[in-house]
Design goal:
37% helix, 3 helices, 155 residues, two-stranded antiparallel sheet, 7-stranded mixed β-sheet
Length: 155
């Protein structure tokens, strides 16, 4: 019984932490809606997702948030890729984003919303005045995406 109580307590703590994070993200994204901020990018996660320094987050929450670039669909990396062609295209999209971020003199984060899972914010990354969403599409690493069923990258 004590083992079950411990698991329930652990689950309750995780739920509280997730709810706190979701509440903070809602406040941050609502207050900062569509305003670009000069928060430094800490790493590139994939072609359409980067992490940025979020030292405004209250302890004990992580001082980093991920932003998914809204309005684009990039190929998925393994293990989510549906075929080798998609996996290779995902690596190319990630490399493109890494290069664009590393070459940029000015990086800005534009917050628009939060995702349905509460772990990421949605918006755009602006590099030297150019939107990453538009750069990805123009260079063939992404497709426009407005929430409809995604097309396969394997065809």
């Amino acid at each position: 019984e004590s083992n079950r109580r411990g698991r329930n307590l652990f689950s309750l703590r995780r739920m509280k932490k997730k709810n706190t994070l979701a509440a903070v993200l809602m406040v941050v994204t609502t207050a900062a809606l569509a305003n670009p901020y000069n928060w430094p990018i800490t790493r590139v996660i994939d072609g359409d997702t980067v992490a940025f320094k979020a030292d405004f987050m209250p302890a004990p929450l992580k001082q980093e948030l991920s932003i998914r670039v809204l309005g684009v669909d990039t190929p998925e990396k393994m293990p989510r890729a549906q075929c080798d062609k998609e996996a290779k295209a995902a690596l190319a999209a990630s490399e493109f984003t890494k290069t664009a971020v590393s070459k940029a003199k000015v990086t800005q984060i534009e917050l628009k919303s939060h995702d349905k899972y509460g772990g990421r914010v949605l918006g755009d990354v602006i590099l030297d005045g150019k939107r990453l969403s538009e750069m990805l599409i123009a260079n063939g690493h992404a497709r426009p995406y407005k929430g409809e069923k995604k097309s396969s990258w394997c065809e």
